[in-house]
């Protein structure tokens, strides 16, 4: 994208700006960071809206754009799309948009911003849920601070040496005192999803990213937190708690025996949507987000829609009658259905309205289709 280079004719950090560039993002999202960096290199003032803090606005933006992925970028009232769309803009079109924002005031039909007086109402969450959100937000800030400009690598070494990480480790110790028994289903989902994602980052920082199958096995079966007086590994959280005590990949036994006190914490049945919220530290994983107990099901459904909209999650060739899916659907097929048809029906019911959904409907109406699974990108985004 040549026009983003320093020294370009549009490089004018000191120029006034009558209009507004709005970016709807999620803290720690690499694509959001790259888009914001590119816009700032143009000398533009960017109004960033964290959709996890302002879910009511995200519903409206999703209606405006027809998309459920982040970032979503607007120049005044003109919707650009995501980071890829920004990068692909022709130089003359980008110059026109930048000129428009600098010279024209914000129109009345521009996308919504949070009201200045808006204050989040304190959630009626258990202390465990509140602590997990605090820990998660702190880890996401660390992730953002040490993410490369292009959003493709993280300097974990520098992150591990930061004072913020030390503070996080001090807070994580408090998990051993939380009370889990009183958590409602929604609180339990948000708590353990946030803790799982934070624990993966913590494990990567302390031990380094696993590089092969054996290291991954050890990582997910030994990296753990002491929570409420009991040890929970990553496997315990994912398969024991969030999947209703089901066997995980390469597991012979269920995570919790009938006499295990942790079984009382497990969800009564599997929640398939968790697979689009858990991030294992690999490039093939869904993006990192923070989840809250309030409206957790909508948040998880939105994560699923975004994952399925991405070609790394699902590809459909209506002409050939082929559907290619992430390995997630192969590893946890039983969570989505016993047959390929049941699994595809589940996917169809959790897609946002899009050309891809229409293509999948066409494939399934044809009655004869082929399902395959794409290679999973286990490579780490750790900066060497």
TrEMBL record:
GO aspect biological process, one term: cell redox homeostasis
Residue ranges annotated for the DUF547 domain, each copy included: 181-308
Domain (Glutaredoxin) ranges: 21-80
InterPro entries: DUF547, GLR_AS, Glutaredoxin, Glutaredoxin_subgr, Grx-like_ET, Thioredoxin-like_sf
GO molecular function (one): electron transfer activity
Region Disordered: start-end pairs: 101-126
A Pfam family per the record: Glutaredoxin
Swiss-Prot/TrEMBL keywords: Disulfide bond, Redox-active center
SUPFAM superfamilies listed in its UniProt record: Thioredoxin-like
Function of the protein: Has a glutathione-disulfide oxidoreductase activity in the presence of NADPH and glutathione reductase. Reduces low molecular weight disulfides and proteins.
Name of the protein: Glutaredoxin
Species in which this protein is naturally found: Albula goreensis
